[in-house]
Amino acid sequence: MRRLLPLAVVLGVLAWVAAPALSVEPYTPKVAEFELTPAAGVHARAAGGPVVLPVMRAPKRFDLVGLKWKDARAVEARIRVRREGGRWSAWLDPGEAESGERGTPPLLTGGTDEVQVRLNRLPRGLKLHFVNATGTADRGARLLTKVRHTVNTAVITAFGAPAVAAKRQASGAPPMVTRDQWDPAGQCKPRNAPDVGRVQAAIVHHTVTSNLYTAQDGPSMVLAICRYHRNSNGWSDIGYNFLVDRYGTIYEGREGGIDKAVVGAQAQGFNATTTGISNLGTYMTEGVPEVALQANARVIAWKLGISGVPLTGTASIRSGGGSQSKYAAGKTVTIPVVSAHRDVGNTDCPGNALYDQMPHLRDLVANGTAGVPSGPQPTTPVPSGAITIAAPNATVAYGAGAQIGGRVTRNDGSGYGGAQIKVQVRTASRWQTVTTTTAGDDGGWLATMPSTRTRQVRALAYVNGQRAATSSPLKIAVQAVVTAKAARRVVYGRPLTITGNVRPAKGRLVLEIARQGRDQKYHVVARVRITPKRGAFRVVTRLRRPALHRLRIRFAGDKTNAAATSADVVLRAIRPKASRGGAAAKA
User: Fold this and answer.
1) Rounded to two decimals, what is the model's pTM?
2) Quick check: 36 and 131 in contact, CB under 8 A?
């Protein structure tokens, strides 16, 4: 029995080690994330030169690194990395954040241990955020990963690799690595459902990483980027719609459907009107290999084609603005339908060398891109136009319903009769449809939406199931409703009870007591704090003098509802009957 126990333990350990790899799907190690705070006050700076931090050894081996800080001001950063005992990389520019984050985009490093940072100034609260997606974070992880890869390879050799899902080809899309393939364990599931916009152009990027990676490294690189975008940047999902490696492999990016106009986080001000394709690597001095350019062209041509966008020429797009956008909000700009990130953003992306390749890439897209699978093309042009939104009252009472309306028109100004209108409100993470309606013959539309809290509201117009226009956002302030009641006559000095409620329920109100003076005007003589319970309140007070009084219950307003005041409660404080006239009247 004693001999069997160790054997059982050994078999149990072997089963635990091998179990995750016993599949015909490629084995994906568990992602590790960790942070490092540089030692305070330890840095060098020459007169007028950059701040250079000392060499830092990361807590574990990392495949990706990015910087985060608490300052609001911009910081210019350069990073270099090395494997322990190896040679330093060049100083790499991670680029600037896309959505106003206080930090840098992720810099892929390909399995390194040490890092050094150079800054134009030292920001407050600086931290380094690391990701390891290759199962190589420490010696134990490296050994475990090696064993599991060996087991997994043996299983695939014995039973065969699974066929690639045919649904990707059914729509005519070029072959690509799907999310299920680069993240089979669901380690980077989106936080929220995606928003859907309208594709009018394609924007080309680079990820800023070492170009010394193998064809097998691509899936783990994409997974690492996704984890950084989601967990460090706080985005819902990976920012790009597609990614392409140096070997011509295309990867599905942000979830929501490759044939849908999923809104990414890749070109601030233009995310809702473009699709983003990012190249794994740094292409400042070295160009993208021809095989990768052709892969870019295949996915761009297919995506523009199913979106009803010509493969050549330009597109006129309205900017949504933003600190990293090249154009202010509301400005309409004309860009090539195949553009580089720097054409719309304040950035060097996609690198000088790739930028010089853009004319060749446009030619590949226009010329059919060397055998692009022919996907379904729209039988009618994608509709386009404009839609307005307005409200007769910018502030409405809680629960009353907000009346809004506008007009949807074609590009020539004529009404888009019959267009379907979706009214949406902005939640913490997305736009949510709250009501729908149909435009009249002249394009005019009206709708009533529920009003429970202050929101940004917009309207979308659809024709034949395709989005034709999106309005500018409109703020509808929703005012709380406060009611109060009390007796119309009370003896001064004796208890006076005031009751009422507030909708929606709030935590703090103020009772304002005003007394009529000789000038016949009301003058505030007291304020009493009230703490309602579940929206209802009951407060007892006393009036000090005989006179006409006015009571009001006030709500000061908060982030969800506008300030509100109850209707006036007017009452008279009188003397006790026994003390009317005589000496008591003089008191």
Assistant:
1) 0.56
2) no
